[in-house]
Amino acid sequence: MKFRRPGRGRSGPLPLPTRSDAVLLSLPGGERIPARVLESSPETLRLATLLSSSAISPRELAGLMVEYGSPRGRVQLTGAEAIKDPSEADVITLTGPLAVDVLQERDFVRVSSARPVLVYMGADHEQIQSYTVDLSGGGLLLAGPDTLQIGEKIDFRLTVSQDTPPITGVGKVVRIDAKGRRGVCFSEISEGDRRRLVRFIFDLQRAERRRGLKERERYGS
């Protein structure tokens, strides 16, 4: 397997996912399986899949990638070897984890949009109503709450339309801007919900372009 070098301008080692982090196992055929990290070290990652790993063939295991969110973007890593634990059907061990690519959040289109979002935070899942400042396929910029700290994980329920179910997932606070707004990178979101979010963003862009054309026609510019 050829490893793609992370893009220029990135410095320092990429952080590995930590214990209990949500990740996605990406198989060569395009299937993605949700998993959680049981153990993490520079030498080994132990991952518990939400489906029995016995369904993964040896060929798929050899080409397995792990995807997860980090402050620098969405990381893809592989390893020297991926091994199914014969004593635990849902556990995969990845030896020699190595980051092979970073998908920067700017690779996703970002648009300004104020949408209601429920934030669940802390061990007791305290529910707080907030709203987005902007949206992308890789994360959210939240107006609050101001108690959220960098590195904190949240569950969220984002409403993009009253006619469709909310988009749900898990994210991590990766930055706080000068206005106190919280940048959240998705660490767990279904592909269906991500597609719905990206489609909503494209619809917003099309509407904005139509408004711009009408304004130019109106003023003859």
Would you write up a description of this structure?
This protein has 221 residues and is of the alpha+beta class. The protein folds into two domains: 22-103, Thrombin, subunit H (Beta Barrel), CATH 2.40.10; 111-213, predicted glycosyltransferase like domains (Thrombin, subunit H), CATH 2.40.10.220. Helix content is 15%, strand content 43%. The protein has helices at residues 58-62, 191-219, and strands at residues 22-26, 32-40, 44-49, 65-70, 73-78, 81-84, 91-95, 98-103, 111-112, 116-121, 126-136, 139-142, 153-158, 167-176, 182-189. The strands form two sheets. It has an eight-stranded antiparallel sheet with strand order 6-7-3-2-1-4-5-8, with no helix packed on it. Strands 10-11-12-15-14-13 form a six-stranded antiparallel β-barrel. Strand 4 (65-70) and strand 5 (73-78) form a beta hairpin. Mean pLDDT is 80; it is low at 1-12.
Structural class: alpha+beta
Widest beta sheet: strand line-up: 6-7-3-2-1-4-5-8
Distance between the termini: 54 Å
The level-1 CATH class of the largest domain: Mainly Beta
Q: Estimate the strand proportion.
A: 35-45%
User: What's the pLDDT, averaged over the residues?
Assistant: 80
Strand tally is 15
Corresponding CATH superfamily of the largest domain: predicted glycosyltransferase like domains
Short précis:
This protein has helices at residues 58-62, 191-219, and strands spanning 22-26, 32-40, 44-49, 65-70, 73-78, 81-84, 91-95, 98-103, 111-112, 116-121, 126-136, 139-142, 153-158, 167-176, 182-189. With 221 residues, the protein is an alpha+beta fold. A hairpin with a 4-residue loop joins strand 10 (116-121) and strand 11 (126-136).
